[in-house]
User: Fold this.
Amino acid sequence: MSSEITICRCEDVTEEDVVRAVREYGLTTLDELKRVLRIGMGPCQGRTCLRLAARILARETGRSTSEVMSLYPRVRPPIIPLELGLAALLEGGDGGGD
Amino acid sequence: MTERLDVAVVGAGIIGSATAYYLAARGLSVAVFDREYVTAGATGRCPGGIRQQWSTEDNVRLMMKSVEIYEGLSEELGAEIDFHQGGYLIVAKTEEERRRFEDQMRMQRSLGLPVRWLEPGEIKEMVPQLDVEGIGAIGAAWNPTDGYANPFKVTYAFASAARRLGAEFHLFTPVRRVVVEGGSVSGVETDKGFFGAEFVVNSAGAWSREIAETAGVSLPNRPYRHEILATEPVRRFLEPMVISFHDNVYFRQSHAGAILGGWGDPNEPPGYNLSSSPKFLGRFSRLLISYVPGLRSVRVVRQWAGLYDVTPDAKQIVGEVPEVAGFIQANGFSGHGFMAGPITAKLVAQLISGEPLDLPIEGFSIERFRRGETGREASVVG
Assistant:
């Protein structure tokens, strides 16, 4: 584990941070890692960091990466960052986009 | 699992995690059960505001005690929680609101809260970016000791401290039934089997009603979706949480600089709907830009939703239900569970261990609905 390897650039999280959080809190899912370390909450919304974090989580919990990735955090709208001024043009439309 | 627990806690949000901490600190054996993980429900979806400006005295007292705990919590739990007292600025837009706020501020000041009225010019001084004329603000109620904390950090800090004191967390372990024998709880039936317990605490948030039903207890709570969004980080300009009951809106700036805010749809039907709507995104964006025009080109990074666990008088249910001994409710927070969490958890721990309570909780009893003695909490964004 390394404090030199950055996993999440948006939130400045290193491999060491991920390993430490997994061990300290006994985390088993990407959803928990996201909430504890904010991985995937930045502007990129987890496009690269969650896959990297999944590999570390798999290694730490003795599971396969695909098993960890099968519980991928819910993708939040608007998917790509959207200016408030443009979002303000949206009318109606309840539900959907879960 | 053969050993009988002192307490089984249902739900690993702020209430359940903090309750586990205060119980374990008293030497009781406690296990927390959650169908998902710590902060999966409303706690992990809330904006983290901590407000003491309420329309009812018991809520003001409760939240003032909660703030006392929050002030020393980082040290007590040995973890950073991003607690910050930047104040709550509650915008008034009508003369009716001004009169109501003045009455409430008189009551709040009598309880020791340093709340005061701000004239429009004073609001502008405090937050120059706020378009005071544009939104038609005629003033604001201002309490400098309100603030916010990071719900994830607070809850994980409580959970970690509880674990260090011996509490168990059974995550991804749904509770199927609260088992009652001869008028008392005997434990919880879970996906991992039966766990015997002398007390069961129902802190399952929006699912509390369903949990209570398994013990034959009827709660008046209903789940309501509330939507929220976060922007990319911007340079720090906003110290207080800004809210308006008139517009049903709130927003604040996070430690990292993001704007977090929500708008409560008055036409939202009850239900377990967690979807994110374009309707909310459009409506809240328009509101936010009207309050702070300078944010127009700032980008929304994500939106999500959480569930308020709403009671008929918008106040929480705390205490033992008379029909089932040992079955303690700590739910129905109606959107204010995070701010009320630490003190409520402490009161529940005091109740279970037979200690004197820091505050009376009769006013939060389920019995008030049965007697028809409710004093509605009016200061709600919802």
